[in-house]
Amino acid sequence: MKKSRIALASLAAFSLLATACGGDDDGDDSVSGDTTTDDTSGDTSGDTAAPGDTTAGTTGDTVDVVQGEDITIAVITHGDDGIFWSVAQKGAEQAGADLGITVQYQGANNDAPTQAQMIDAAVGQGVAGLVVSLADPSALQDSVLAAVDAGIPVITINSGSDVYQEFGAITHVGQDEFIAGQGAGTRLAEAGGTNLLCVMQEQANVGLEARCDGAEDTFGGSITRITTSGDADPTTSQQEIAAALDADDTIDAIFATGPVGAVLARNAVADAGREVTIGSVDLSTDLLDAIEAGEIAFTIDQQQYLQGYLPVVMLYLNITNANTTGGGLPVYTGPGFVDDSNVAEVKDLVAAGTR
Fold first, then answer.
1. Maximum pairwise Cα distance, the chain
2. Which residues sit opposite 277 in a β-bridge?
3. What is the Cα–Cα distance from 314 to 62, expressed in whole angstroms?
């Protein structure tokens, strides 16, 4: 039977991490633009096992993977198929292709009860590992704990860095949202802001609230928070941002907790003829174009491709080699910042679908 050494598979998997996270964390790091998901993409040894070759055995001082038993990892997020989560999905599916295992990705479109049902179904299916975002922890707690009780290793991503240990997860992959918000508050204050509007695009998302909390911590001036109708209703959302600007003519800084909201804020500011410094979180082509044009000052890059890719690799190594990651702490993929100094390079990577 063919054998594929986990050591080699892991080296191939983590080569993307080395490329993506090497050097500083200014958002200027690169990831391979190759996002194909065919089953041969993980062949790095010249003697690669077929997909599903994941039964662990030992040879000498390494662990081998032998044909015969498939590993299925479920990745279940609160996300939609928009500009952020589609890239995270690519990362997860590419990791599965590189390792020759099955990755089942589902997004709940910001519906916590639906996400809980998806988790319950994955547990009932008997998946080998579970990746889950915790935008609404209280709604998902019972389902995630049931997975842990069933012996399924869990890693949380994106939202939930403050509660993942309570849920029995191995680690959390993402950014600390409060720290990210602190960075935004500092930058907006340095730009001369004194009255900040923090624009959130989802109700009951603890991660977005933490971003605004962090910004308030370092901004130093006054802050107003609004939650718009969301990215799915951009017309109404832009009107809501415009109404907040009309209600307070002293607002001179906006922190949008998502890229769509930042572009809508740019539009509302332009329509009002105001001078307002705008910062954002995450990436989109429109947002990066606005940074390049000097209309938006910066955005925070949490590298969502890595949030999809890394936990699949970590769970694979946990399942096949009893490895754990993080040492009880989260594994951070951000925050990095994209501004006029590095926006051109990041735009190329966004076009490739990996940022």
1. 72
2. 253
3. 17
192 token code pair: 């001369």
Q: Which of 278, 160, 294 is nearest to 215 (CA)?
A: 278
Which residue in 141, 102, 146 sits closest to 121, CA to CA? 146
Structural domains of the chain, with CATH: 3-175+303-334 (3.40.50.2300), 177-301 (3.40.50.2300)
Q: What is the DSSP string of 167-186?
A: TT-S-EEEE-HHHHHHHHHH
pLDDT one-digit tens code per residue, 206-257: 889 999 999 999 999 999 999 999 999 999 999 999 999 999 999 999 999 9
Instruction: Give the separation between CA 86 and CA 76, rounded to whole angstroms.
Output: 13
Question: What order of strands is seen across the sheet that includes strand 172-175?
Answer: 102-107, 72-77, 129-133, 154-157, 172-175, 331-334
Alpha-carbon gap, residue 187 to 302, rounded angstroms: 17
